Amino acid sequence: MNYTRQEMMAIAAGREIRAGEMAIFGVGLSMLAGHFAKRNHAFHIKDLTESGIYGATPVGGLPWGVEDNRISSNATSFTNCMDALGVMVASGRCDVGIIGAAQIDKYGNVNTTGLWADPANPVYLPPKTRLSGSGGAPEIASGCKRYIIMAAHDRKRFVDKVDYLSSPGYLTGAAARDRYHFHGGGPALIVTTLGIMRPDPVTREFILTEYYRSSSIEEIKENTGWDLKVAPDVKLVPEPTPRELENLRAVDKTGMLRKKD
To answer: Are strands 187-192 and 195-199 parallel, antiparallel or unpaired?
Structure first.
């Protein structure tokens, strides 16, 4: 079967979503993975967007944003971002969320705010590169019972320490997150274009637990900005089945993931 690494990533993330869960998705890859799961195996998820659109299925391809009529046209109900993020997510009612990242560190902290020329400079100075911003990701990272991070895997993105903490992972590791009494349990896994990382149960440092047939442990370590540990029982991720690819591509009508390698 021919498929891209981006398609493998979307399927691997979607496999983590379970039927019956309350789930919240952003736009782009996170929405694609979520609606793949809804079509493929998690038929009865209760899905919500950051803007408060509930129970929708995109028509005519993925929407450009959560306000796009392609997702609004067949929604079960409409509310607003304050209800979605400030009530449903912040109260701990959401089982799972999916977010993206421009930078990720070894404890699953995410930066989507900006990149500084010298990370040692104070963050109150303007960044060298301003990013798109955090959107609803901090609320998802703080309030969901668990959340999934999706990102293309390269050394510039996977860093030892993020330039700016936009969305909290396990902060400095171990029990550091527990001191802030978030409703949410933290990042359950990081799904990339090369493999899957999960947190060590004690240190909370992310380690490599699975990799794809199209990648290798050596390639993943070379593209990670910290000394990535490998689980003793590291294993291959099962390749997409024909049915999974069919369902993913039915959601990805514009071929966004097939245009990349």
So the answer is: antiparallel
